[in-house]
Amino acid sequence: MRPLEALFVGALILSLGLRWARPRNRQVTSTLLAMVGIMAALHVVFDGVRWEMIPAYGMAVAAAWILARDLQRATGAKAGESSRWAAVPSAGQRAVSGVAFLVAGVAAVVIPAWLFPRIILPEPDGLYWVGRLDIAWTDSARQARPVPVSIWYPAEAPNGRTLRYHPQAGALASGFARGTPLPGFTFRNLAAARTHSTAAPRFSIREGRSPLVVASHPVGGTRTGGTALFEQLASHGYVVASVGHAGSAAEDRAEPAGRAAEIEHRTADLRFVLDRLLRLPLGDAADTLATHVRADRIALIGRGEGAVAAAEVAAEDSRVTAVAAIAPDSFAAVARRGVRRPFLVFTVGSATPSLDDALRYGGTEVHLEGATAQSLSDLALLGKPIVGILGIESGDAAADIHAAVTALSLRFLDQYLKERREQTEVDLPSRVRLRVIPHAPRAN
Predict the structure, then answer these.
(1) 129-439 has which CATH code?
(2) Any bridge partners for residue 90, and if so which?
């Protein structure tokens, strides 16, 4: 429950508690009614109306009606009773009303917190604050294809209030709901979650130029879908550009035209964004990064279909230094001939088709034994009721799986983009089951 929501519910509990616990007077009743109205207004203005708060809204309506009735009775009281009137509930009435009030109060607090817990993204532990830019580019060479990009980077200090998980929370929630039995507002706890990034703060120059990481999300995902990972990387000195792929992201309302076409669009999107970032300045908000990005230290990272596209680009683009693929379901034609870059692959479930071919020149496989591809989605962080309805299953907790992937990805990028090759301990959640499988280069 958010702070203003907690204050709103607290005001309701205090108002109804005082109303039934002792005799009332006009001044106290007016103050309580005003307090409920003010807290309700603050909640609606700053948090917005949320369906999880329906029990609390019902309490607010009941409290306003009861307190308003009290004021009417005070106005009609006899001489000498204007400040305190005789119609005080009996002990029995107060006991019955108190039980009803207690049940309503518990429902207003417990139901939203248990069924739909607030999504809290892990706080980055790097040296830097995190900034974010949301940019809309257009690839004119491909029929004016829109390519939205969100960029996280190391900042010197925060710049105002932290940003929401996605710039268009309502559209994102509706997109997540497509194909599920749940309404769009069910997903607003994730879509409207607060991050640890602020909008366009000053870039930190303590480490000089930063390595660049370009990310690709899976089908049905969004460019902000790896926010926890991206913020962690940015706090450790990386610039992370996450690409939104039109036709597959939840905020876009078209279906992909087929796997081959989907991968082709994604690889073209990745190359387009990479070209743009290496041609700064461009005359837009991304010019904040113009003198801060290292063109000789570039990694690609992706999940699901995004992992397939990242491996495909890395296999043939000489600008790419390293690549990390999270839960690819297979590999495309170019990657199957082998990826000649430092290569980290996270696998789940049974054997990944063509994995050995992609790793013919060596690499590292991390097999997440207690994870599924669905548990790597941010939707798996929404809590048991929604996760169960969506059929997302995993042997290990989704939050622990995400933390392990983040820690190992950071260590891999430090090794090859910052050339920190010394062996260091990786802080992994103790409950995550995984196996690290080195793949040595093999003769053709």
Answers:
(1) 3.40.50.1820
(2) none
